[in-house]
Amino acid sequence: MEADIKPQESLLRVRLTRLYHRYIGYFKNVADNGQTWSVRAAALVKALAASALLGLATLFIYAILLIPFTPSIADLRKAKTESPSVLMSEDGKELAVFKRLNRKWVELDEISPHVIKALIATEDHRFYEHHGVDLKRTAAGILRTLQGDPEGGSTLTQQLARNLYPEEIGRRRTITRKLKELITALKIEYAYSKDEILLTYLNTMPFLYNAFGIEMGARTYFDKPAAKLNVLESATLIGMLKGTSYYNPVLNGERAVKRRNVVLSQMLKRGALSRTEFDNLKNRPLRLDFERQPEPVGRAPHLAAHVRKWLVDWADRNDYNLYSDGLVVISTVDSRLQAFASQAIERHMDALQAVADVEWGLSSPALISTNAATYRGMRRHVQPWAHWWRTQGALVDSFVRESSAYRSLLAAGTAPEQALAQLKKDAVFLNALRAEKTRLETGFVALDPGTGHVKAWVGSRDHAVDQFDHVAQAKRQPGSTFKPFVYGAALEKGMTPSRRFVDREVEIELKNGSIWRPGNASGISGREMTLHEGLAYSKNTITAQVMQEVGPAKVAAFARRLGVSQSTLDEVPALSLGTSPVSLLEMATAYGTIASGGEMRKPILVSRILDKDGKLLETFTSEPERAMSARTAEDLTDMLRGVITRGTGRAIRSQYGLHADVAGKTGTTQNNTDGWFILMHPRLVAGSWVGFNDARVAMRSSYWGQGAQTALPVVGDTFRQAVHARLIDNSTRFPTAPEPFLTALWTKVSAWFDREKPKDEVPARPSRPRPAAPPAPSAPPPTERIPEDVPDMHYDEMQRIIEQARNGGMTLPDGMPAEIVLPDGTVLVPVYPEEGRVFIAPQP
Q1: Segments in 647-784 forming alpha helices (H)
Q2: Average of pLDDT values for 137-149?
Q3: What is the C-alpha to C-alpha distance for residues 449 and 285, in angstroms, rounded to an integer?
Q4: Are 492 and 558 contacting, i.e. CB atoms less than 8 angstroms apart?
Q5: Pairwise CA distance, residues 254 & 236, whole Å
Q6: DSSP string, 771-805
Q7: How far apart (Å, rounded) are the C-alpha atoms in residues 608 and 616?
Q8: How distant, in Å, are the alpha carbons of 550, 588, 637 from that of 485?
Q9: What is the pLDDT of residue 564?
Q10: How many beta carbons lie within 10 A of that of residue 652, not counting itself?
């Protein structure tokens, strides 16, 4: 066999060598001055012909090599029946549809025949004659290009190839792109019928403003379905295909009309219009009914965006196409809880926005009322944020300088001071800037601590207004919600919840030599407090002392083990008061670790993925990792119960009526910038953050700026609805740690002999009563000490105000104005109703 192959190889080598020498000989004859002109001319012709053949052969070989880098026939057939993937909730509701483009697919009989006639007449009048490549048009295009008048020679099939695969084929004018386009067009002609090519083309055409396909184009520019487009409207849309931006009828009406008339003339030329029709139509004005077509975002848009990023990677790894394979993605989200959270945010944030608008709109003292309804009634009489905008000139100037409009003016050559002055005189710009900077935002997330399943995810008040995700993307200072990690690290070190510290002034020397003096909003009491009380009453001085004994490094390491692992934690004493920015998702994960008995589970958003036929492709779980001992988790949970029963989270029981076994923590940062609240239940942990996107803007009064008034109502309202819908079991209790072996053994022996345990018996860990979780009373005892959550307002003062109102006293509380005169002359005075709330109402 080998003997037969070697002579063949030798023969091929000899023939190639002869061809090479003959090819080189042509050029030698052309350059040989000793030859006659006829011989040299003949040699030149042969050289050019040989070069052309060689070029074509090289181009052919290169095209063959490019075939694997173009879409396969299977991919093309899949694109023809493209089926987007769907994100479903755990309870079977559709949350989102993952489409490549914002379009609505319509059939040929749902498209006006005028559109089809205009398209074929203008873009490819031999569409039904060629097989993907029109050689006549290609040759004409090359000739026009050589003459300096570039003209596209692509057929509808070639254009479809670019529309379907813009990344694989590209848009640059290169030989590689043209070859890929040609190869793909031939494959499309093989895989599709002519009607299928036409249908797919019409449903993939781009029309600007995030509109793709003839249906979305018709609705965007003429506010009607594609089936009802007339000749002029059809010609306008088809005319845009040559250059959507250049012939945009909204911004470039004159160009669009000229291009429309070119399309009409092509329809006349190809017999799609009569001369009379053409003459009647060409001089008619352009009439638009423009309206952007919003892309459907579904029930959980921020969650869907987060899932989409993860799914794209998963699909690539597993050879699936997220946008065409029709995957059914089952999320962990409960659509009912998602709806409850969205409703709670809408209700509460609108009221809180009214508070901010009015308090910053007036120059009077900050706190006007403890009833949000008062502010809602006042808002129509007050210019929102007028006082703040007048008194914060330097900060307003900074806002202007940070805007894109300011940068654009500088780029155009405008002097900085002139640009600033120009924009400050622009009322439209300033109103938009004020609305952006003074809009309160929020984030909410809920997860199951036992599985890591995310049950609800609301990234902002309104996705249409703010797409920024305040659950996973935003990082803000957590304030007092970080304190449990300090106490948890202390418990892990061996402290007990009964360990006592004195509420006293604390001075901590920092590495740079400066002194840090944390304080409490209500001052120093001087009394002893247990760890349990220090966390329940959110005492900064107690927390700082605990941090001194444990050390910032151990506290940071403890927080990371619990789930605060994506953010940078500065290992300094002030970390104990929550000075390092973190995300809401991290905080909810960490509290979920506490609620689960010390096992950290990474949050997951997808439980399983099915193919379009319902076949299970993969399931997903979150494996537990032991982050702290079960005993520490039990003790820490009981300490956080105290926040709800007698601390800053008492409204969970008194106002929202939740009597389940729950624990949690409020948090407020400096100057009322950030409000936090995280609530733990054995089966659900939910957290909320409330604040302004720009941390330089904050709530005005300490009462309305505290986490107990901003974030807690969002969580409380959501939980209350979930309990009523029986999504949460009230009887469930937090897990308890098993007793140490020696303690359990001694208990059994003592019971057997019916005698008490000796006083000097020392168990493996100091014995203490096991925390109980009885149903909480509907309201705290009237003599109970009112706690603080720095820098939350003085609760004892607020209690005095309420008691005074209940008793009918008419002495005005400190900070409450005697009267307020609105710009329209209305005089507002304090009123003390029966229910004990203090608010301002019009003077009778």
Answers
A1: 651-654, 702-705, 707-710, 712-724, 741-753
A2: 56
A3: 64
A4: yes
A5: 12
A6: PP-PPPPSS--TTSPP---TTS--HHHHHHHHHHH
A7: 7
A8: 11, 13, 11
A9: 97
A10: 28
pLDDT in tens, 430-451: 999 999 999 999 999 999 999 9
Give, rounded to a whole angstrom, the gap between the first and last alpha carbons of the chain.
115
Distance CA(87)–CA(610), nearest Å, equals 11
Judge contact between 235 and 264, C-beta under 8 A.
yes
Three-state DSSP state, 591: helix
- Mean pLDDT on 300-326: 91
CA–CA distance, 88 with 24 (Å, rounded to integer): 69
Token pair for 535: 């966390």
Q: Please give the Cα distance from 429 to 437 (Å, whole number).
A: 12
**φ, ψ for residue 86 (rounded to 5)?**
-125, 135
pLDDT band at 40 (very low <50, low <70, confident <90, very high): confident
Helix (H) or strand (E) holding 264: helix 253-269
- State how far Cα 774 lies from the chain centre: 39
Taking the CB of residue 159, how many other CB atoms lie within 10 A of it?
A: 19
Structure tokens at 196: 């299928």
SS3 content of the chain, % helix, strand, coil (to 5): 50, 10, 40
Q: Name the DSSP letter for residue 327.
A: -
Which has the higher per-residue pLDDT, 319 or 681? Answer: 681
pTM to 2 decimals?
Answer: 0.74
**Model confidence at 128: pLDDT above 70:** yes
| pLDDT at residue 800 in the model | 41
Confidence of residue 691 (pLDDT cuts 50, 70, 90): very high
- Can you name the residues that pair with 88 across neighbouring β-strands? 94, 330
User: Could you tell me if 475 and 674 are in contact, meaning their C-beta atoms sit under 8 angstroms apart?
Assistant: no
Number of C-beta neighbours around residue 625 at 10 A: 13
Compute CA distances 620 → 321, 355, 387, 629, whole Å: 19, 44, 53, 26
The fraction of the chain above a pLDDT of 90, given in percent, is: 59
Show Cβ contacts of residue 454 under 8 Å, excluding neighbours closer than 6 positions. Answer: 303, 331, 332, 333, 445, 446, 447, 603, 604, 605
b/e 25-44 (16+ beta carbons within 10 angstroms → b): ebeebbeeeeeeeeeeeebe
Taking Cα atoms as reference points, which of 108, 159, 164 lies closest to residue 134? 159
Look up residue 686 and give its DSSP letter: E
Give the angle subtended at the CA of 380 by the CAs of 394 and 464, to the nearest 5°.
70
Q: Which two structure tokens, joined as six digits, stand for 451?
A: 């599985």
For the chain, the average pLDDT equals: 84
Q: How far, in Å, CA of 86 to CA of 614, rounded?
A: 12
DSSP 577: G
Which of 640, 554, 543 is closest to 595 using CA atoms?
A: 640
Find the angle CA(121)-CA(123)-CA(128) to the nearest 5 degrees.
70
Q: Tokens 């120093």 correspond to what residue?
A: 524
Q: Of 47-56, 249-258, 509-518, where does the model show the most confidence?
A: 249-258
